[in-house]
Design goal:
Four copies of one chain form a homotetramer. By secondary structure, the first copy, chain A, is mostly helical. Chain A is 64% helix and 3% strand. Chain B binds a DNA duplex through helix 3.
Chain lengths: 132, 132, 132, 132
DNA sequence: GTGGTCTAGACCACC
DNA sequence: GTGGTCTAGACCACA
């Protein structure tokens, strides 16, 4: 489910954190449900277990999951609520960043809208084609 | 002109590179025009000269500027053409990233479009308010 | 393997780059093989790690090696092909420079050929003598 | 007569020094003959006068030319002898460097000889074509 | 342990 | 004054 981009500057553990949050937000992971073990997820993402461990650790610090030694980590009871609050912020943040980036290159609002629409269509077409 | 975000994950030298490219793209910097000296720009951005030097060095390797010892760095003759090519790539990249981020949280195309439009308006209103 | 000439005008990082390229070209380093770590190579060459880091960074930008944080740098999959292209260019460049240098001092083609041959023999004799 | 390569790492003043030496060696400049003024040569080479001044200064230190304030610099009486000694050394040095460069990339003596011959022919053809 | 970024500060080559 | 190279050493991200 989670996809890792190793080429960029965004740390892998941040990408994992965001991935878990998005899965909770989507209902793929539900409160009190067990998360994949650190080893399993690390194997799946082809990533060092320490990296997954760090993502889990920080998610726990932020209250999204709870971990106990020797037992699987659980999605926190109130994680949905927490994430719902974060969700808007996260999305607006990334969209704001994209917009300001485009503006830096001199695009105005309507031009930005056009590109967004064309990229949205572009991606839809691609994902239909792949059929996944 | 260039603003540095020291909080994030994007290296300062990358932000400087992007800043210069956007200024060339906007026509603030024109081909054969002198760039600010490394020391000056470093002072302006409150950053170490080496960091600016790295940005300039990489911009030269990529062909956007030309530097000679003892002389100011110049925007390359063909930089506009080079950057025009990059511009589209850079903008689409950042917009694609924002879109995929939003999709991860379960938003569909029309929802994304709505948020984009609302953020665009939001920013317009703010910049009008500031009047700058 | 790599020898650094600190006396000349050629930057150390350039000498390191050329050294790595020649080792790939010779097959001492093979695609997907790990390069010596920055710190190790720096210690071996008695050079600052930053200098080696710069060489590695530029080699990566040029596509000869690939690096990931926390992992050793690897010789790129397609490095052999890339370097084969560079090899001819590099050698012709240095030979052209030597020839034009000799011509500046009034030597004609056959005189240059003679000197080249005598230097070639000279070196062979020396390397035989050393027996290494 | 002297050609300057601004792209490489070899300092311009070194190229000028070598150029003067080669002209003395070729007899273009003769002992006791006046050298071009710093300003004139600088203008001709499109180079900063300070750079030419440095070349002249070092040539004087090495005994190849003599300068007196307010008067043109002169080729030293014994410059030919001095340069004849240097000439062999300079040429062998640059040829040795080219050879060792080629060897680094795995070429053997006969391969190097072939490249040298082909480059020699290549240059002859080009200079005939240009007719200069 | 690895590589990546940044700072501070030195020295050089050139204008 | 300019940019270029190098060192020394800190801190971070990742394995």
């Amino acid at each position: 489910m989670i996809t890792i981009d190793t080429s960029g500057f965004i740390p892998i553990y941040e990408q994992i954190k965001k991935g878990i949050k998005s899965e909770v937000s989507l209902g793929v992971l539900k409160p009190n449900q067990a998360l994949p073990s650190i080893r399993d997820l690390a194997a799946e993402l082809v990533v060092n277990p320490n990296t997954v461990a760090r993502a889990y650790r920080e998610l726990e610090l932020e209250g999204f999951i709870s971990t106990r030694k020797g037992k699987a980590s659980l999605v926190a009871e109130n994680s949905s609520a927490l994430i719902e609050k974060e969700k808007t912020r996260l999305i607006e943040e990334v969209i704001d960043r994209a917009i300001s980036e485009a503006r830096k290159f001199g695009l105005n609002s309507s031009e930005i809208k056009k590109i967004v629409e064309s990229r949205l269509k572009n991606q839809e077409r691609r994902s239909e084609g792949v059929g996944k």
